[in-house]
Amino acid sequence: MIYGFADVLNKALAFALIPLYTRILSPGDYGALQIFVIVANIGYVVVQMGLSSAIFKSVLYHENADKPVIISTSFYCIVLLSIVFLIPCFMYSKILSHWIFGSDLYIQCFKILMITIFFRSFNVIPLAALRIENESVTFSIFIVSSFLVQLAMNIFFVLVLKMGLMGILTAECISAGIFAVIYFIFLFNRLVLKFSLSELKELLEFGIPLVPAALAMFVLTMSDRFFIKHFYSLEDVGFYSIGYRFGMIIGILVGAFQKAWPSAMFSIARQENAKRVFSENFTRFLAVLFTLTLGLTLFSKEVFLIMATKTYIPGIKIIPYIALSFIFYGIYYYCAIGMNLKKKTYYQALIVTAAAGINIFFNWLLIPRFGIQGAAFATLISFVFMGVVANMISQHYYFVTYKYAQITVIIVIFLLFAFISNYLSNLNYYIGIFSKFILFILYVGICYHIGFRKKVFKQFIG
């Protein structure tokens, strides 16, 4: 679990900075920032070439693996790829700015971003080495320190110097530069002056096939911003992105589950009653996620106005769609039991790629008509597809009798209460809050009885 801490902290940082960003940046600038985040993430995937995962197979799978050579080869390769990829992007920042934004205003922003991606490439192999060596304490120190430095840099450049969007990108760049030096110093004693082409070939044979799936995931979760910008404006991208951040609260929880699930899944699979345990835990898993999503849906406006400003209020309406989408993302991971146990994981890449295609189609179809709500609904359709198809394929290889009656009750009552909540917003503020609280407590009780007290549920439906 501790190694999933980095991803959780990164997402937590993005959420924690919402009060600062929404009070300093206009919706248009916040929308531009999200475009830069997408470009950076794509850059990270390309320069890594899947080596961050491949190194584990090469070091841990082979008994006589030459770890120093593998680590050195991986590090040199990533640095070289970063230089080859990023120097042209840096030089042609004007073209990128004009192509993506239709303006020359963001040339310097792109140059800073390319430098940041280069610096970030230095952390890939050191963090992988720490995981290989089970240095969880050192790993945690690096991650927490990076989090605190990023937070401090953002506060200084954005709040104190009031540099806006440029300040955010500069803060990220300086933070990345500081830790590039730290990570290199840490890795220096583990490096050897040797570059093995044979090891590189094996690393890339494993890593490169992971790149299309990773890029497909970015298309699935981020392509909608480009459609919104194309059909509407950067301001609408800002509204959508801030609402997406709130929906991502469920995504953060699912991400933590994703890190812990593989070891738990294989451990459960060895038990005699594995299928029953998988079934019961799935009901509980959904009960927890739908309960949290209902709480987020009911109190989204109140939480939103604490964290953000009224300027961004159009983003509220997409929060339930995004939160629901990440529930189905969780279903996708949970229900892939058969694919994982029977080593049919190539289906997962196919499912994600197909979902990305579906997402592009519905973005094109719905965004021109329904704006940011159309984008959110396209996201929901895509993730529902992933969850349903993953379950269908896995059931073919490893059939689990899920408690569909219980699950149906959880979903139907969630939809009913979410629908009622739309009308509670028109009531007096305090009466509305009290009514929402009653609905939430009632739903907690229902999900508890369904997911954790089976006898009560059987009496309820009997």
Order of helices and strands: HHHHHHHHHHHHHHHHHHHHH
Overall 3D form: globular
Largest sheet: none
> In the residues, how many domains can be counted?
2
- The number of strands is 0
Q: What is the percentage of strand-forming residues? A: under 5%
Distance between the ends: 40 Å
Number of helices: 21
What Rg do the Cα atoms give? 23 Å
Outline the low-pLDDT stretches: 455-462
Structural class: mainly alpha
Q: Helix content range of the residues, please?
A: over 70%
Mean pLDDT: 87
Question: Can you offer a commentary on this structure?
Answer:
Helix 14 (274-298) packs parallel to helix 19. Residues 455-462 have low confidence and may be disordered. The chain has 21 helices and no strands. The chain is 84% helix and 0% strand. The protein has 2 domains: 2-208, no CATH class; 224-461, no CATH class. It has helices spanning 5-16, 18-24, 27-48, 51-61, 67-91, 93-101, 107-120, 124-132, 136-160, 164-188, 197-207, 210-231, 234-269, 274-298, 300-307, 319-334, 337-341, 346-397, 404-424, 429-452, 454-461. The chain is mostly helical and 462 residues long.
